[in-house]
Write a structure and sequence with these properties.
Layout (H helix, E strand, L loop, with lengths): L1 H9 L11 E6 L7 H10 L5 E6 L1 H6 L2 H8 L4 E2 L6 H6 L2 E4 L4 H8 L6 H11 L3 E5 L8 H5 L7 H17 L1 E4 L16 E2 L1 H9 L4 E4 L4 E2 L1 H10 L2 E4 L1
Parallel strand pairs: 1-2, 1-4, 2-3, 4-5, 5-6, 7-9, 8-10
Helix pairs in contact: 6-9, 10-11
Length: 235
Amino acid sequence: MAKNTLQALYLRNASSSERKPQILALLTSHMIGMEPGFSYLKKLTQKDITLRIYAEEEMLKQFPLHELVLRTGNDDWISSSMVHDQLIDHFDEIFLPILSFSLMKDLLSFNDQRPMVQIILKGLLKGKRVTALKAGVDPFSAYWQLKGMDKGPDILKRKLNQQMGELKILGLRLIDSNDQADFTVQQTKKTVISGETVRLAHLRKLDHIAVPKGAIITPLARDTAKELKIEIILH
């Protein structure tokens, strides 16, 4: 954790080509076990990336934090109270080491009442890449065979395959446990703040607009903000 914090301070103003990729891993539990996810996270500690982990409350009830640190090889964890828009903007990619049935269902139904789903949806809408290990929902995975859970009806397997396809349509990148994820920093589209954006904020009775660092603010937007007394804040 200390290493990641110092790295972030040192490279705060560095360009994307100079800094390490910043990865946010979201950890949940699965009825057939979490071994592939834990193992993959441990491998990532050898990568030249900055990795921080957020775990759902149910996960923390099953495992004490010190045990999760041992299982993942990472001690840089963040709490739900720390996850907000500014923090999501800081990360280049969201990684799901464990994709459970309930998480897949909640993503496909846009259940933003679940904090983890809200983080993922915000990430996708902000143009972040979201990668997930598919072992938890792939009925043809060798992991399912090892667990003796590959004998289900074909209709169940087809349904899971269909839902995996829908996740891909949403923008999730599904990979196998043996795949080497490419966490290269991607150039994302810049946010554009226009005069229309400012007027919409005025209609919503906002007195300021918080925009990500590097956003393009048009001259008309600045003039409109001055006219309507709305402050544009870069974060």
